[in-house]
Design goal:
This protein is mainly alpha-helical. The chain has one domain: Up-down Bundle (Four Helix Bundle (Hemerythrin (Met), subunit A)), CATH 1.20.120.450. The chain has helices spanning 21-38, 56-74, 81-89, 99-119, 140-166; strands at 128-131, 136-139. Strands 1-2 form a two-stranded antiparallel sheet. Helix 1 runs antiparallel to helix 4 and helix 2 (56-74) packs antiparallel against helix 5. It is globular, with a radius of gyration of 16 Å. The mean pLDDT is 95. Pfam families: DinB_2 (PF12867).
Length: 170
């Protein structure tokens, strides 16, 4: 029997530091919601931009990319050339992916993020970190929290976009 409660109500995620549980819960909740919403999604509709807004494909790519980038900054690293190329390709409809390819990529990125959370020492959470080329000031906790909230924001947008595209309300 599956637990239908939201992830945060199911208790702590093993091996994740206490202060980082909300980040892990948000990412796991996003994963479940995305899986459910895309289970029967028609890949032919992946790049439709309803009302000139972001496509389902963009949201799925962006969800993976933003986790990768923010967790990179949280480690105190600069983005790689590969990450910068991936950023440029977010929303590029000439790429050949299925919705399930993009969902699997997100799930994999969540697994990487959870591993990083497991390895994060809570004593480092307030250590300064720079964001982007301008090195905008933040800290480890700020970046991880923003990764969680940004993920949730895009999942909400994704769910609405899926509904609009499925109902041909574009």
């Amino acid at each position: 029997m599956s637990d239908t409660r939201e992830v945060w109500l199911r208790g702590p995620i093993p091996e994740i530091p206490a202060l980082l549980q909300p980040v892990a819960h948000a990412m796991l909740q996003a994963t479940e919601e995305i899986r459910k919403a895309t289970a029967d999604f028609d890949t032919n509709k992946l790049w439709i931009k309803p009302y000139s807004q972001a496509s389902v494909g963009f949201h799925l790519q962006h969800l993976s990319g933003v986790l990768d980038r923010l967790f990179t900054y949280a480690r105190g690293e600069a983005l790689s050339e590969q990450q910068l190329r991936a950023l440029q390709l977010e929303g590029d409809s000439s790429q050949i992916y299925t919705a399930q390819d993009l969902v699997r990529a997100f799930e994999l990125q969540v697994q990487y993020a959870l591993q990083q959370l497991r390895e994060t020492d809570e004593r480092t959470l307030l250590e300064p970190r720079g964001v982007g080329r301008q090195q905008i000031p933040s800290n480890v906790l700020g970046l991880l929290f923003h990764a969680a909230e940004h993920t949730q924001r895009h999942v909400g947008q994704l769910l609405v976009t899926i509904k609009v595209v499925k109902e041909n309300k574009v």
